[in-house]
Amino acid sequence: MVSSNALGDFLRARRARVQPSDAGLPAGTGLRRTPGLRREELAALSGVSIDYYIRLEQGKELNPSASVLDALATALRLGGDEHAHLYALANHAARRTSQARHTADRTVPSGTRLLLENLRPCPAYLLSPIGDILAANPEGVALYAGLDGWPEERRNTVRYVFLHPAALTLLADWDASALGCVANLRGVLADDPRSPGLADLVAELTAGSAEFAGLWGRYDVRRRRSARKTFRHPVVGELTLGYEVLRLSEPGRRVTVYQAAPGSRDHERLTRLAREP
């Protein structure tokens, strides 16, 4: 579920993943009851008092300085996306940012629909911040086997990965796709905790997928970027495609485009996607 103390939850989860040896601390003797770093160890590494850190983790301290956040990020060994995520959570806790920038508008401009059509035969679709497929060209629908069997309002890329029975077979590296979906959704939460549909989607997937619940609790954060993905498609066979993520002027919306080099086997299979029954 979406927590009211997202900053504290994030700090606890990431603290549990850093071993004392990772931070240059002696392991000590005896059994450690706390996975990862203890609160006092993280406080010392970050240069803050234990009382201050406890208040921060409990959601009672809502205005940490940039120097404190940077020190915590270093001690927790956060990457670039995770460091930015920490700042976003702190800004929301201090109410320094808007709590609801996006609306639930599903209207798709005619220019965006034309763009999707002109990208054919490359599969392409328009996504909302939480992964709802607002529009797609025929290849975009056909690439995700079985997606056309869902009503349009249910079509969501994260929901597909975790709840559609075809996903495990279609996605050659399902684990990487699943982790990427959840890590990106964590970023959406930091950008806009009240993003329309976010709380309902997280609740649905937490209840319906143990894999999602486990990954959601890890608090990984990663923004969608260009990469490659291999599909084992039931109609056209295996194909490996690069994909580009195009950010639009509408807040949070993006177009994802899959492509292959002209003349390649993968490109030839792309052209068959929308022609096959």
TrEMBL record:
Gene Ontology terms, MF aspect: DNA binding
Family annotation (InterPro entries): Cro/C1-type_HTH (IPR001387), Lambda_DNA-bd_dom_sf (IPR010982), MLTR_LBD (IPR041413)
Superkingdom assignment: Bacteria
Domain HTH cro/C1-type: 36-83
Pfam families named among the record's database cross-references: HTH_31, MLTR_LBD
Name of the featured protein: Helix-turn-helix transcriptional regulator
Organism: Actinomadura syzygii
Lineage: Bacteria, Bacillati, Actinomycetota, Actinomycetes, Streptosporangiales
